[in-house]
Design brief:
By secondary structure, the chain is mainly α. The chain has one domain. Helix content is 79%, strand content 0%. The protein starts with a helix and ends with a helix. The mean pLDDT is 76.
């Protein structure tokens, strides 16, 4: 199973992360961003943010926290682009 998921960390952490993903708060966070399609479309950016969080904190972020950070990052980018647009 670990090979299929390309997961190399401790098994107990895998079960913890799977429980997080089944959490209703994570589903609400995904829905607030635009659903699973939005997450799939932006998975590379989300992965980069997760890696940066891991480098900064020495652990992987809780999925809900990761989605909140992603939402803030994309909100900043959107506002920056809108500020450059002609009026």
């Amino acid at each position: 199973m670990r090979d299929v998921l390309h997961y190399s960390d401790r098994v107990e952490l895998l079960s913890m992360y799977l429980c997080f993903l089944m959490n209703g708060l994570v589903k609400k966070a995904i829905d607030a961003l635009g659903g699973a399609a939005w997450v799939l479309q932006h998975r590379d950016e989300i992965r980069k943010l997760a890696q940066k969080y891991h480098e900064d904190h020495g652990q992987w972020p809780h999925p809900q926290e990761l989605l909140q950070v992603t939402k803030r990052q994309f909100g900043r980018k959107k506002r920056a682009v809108e500020a450059l647009a002609p009026r």
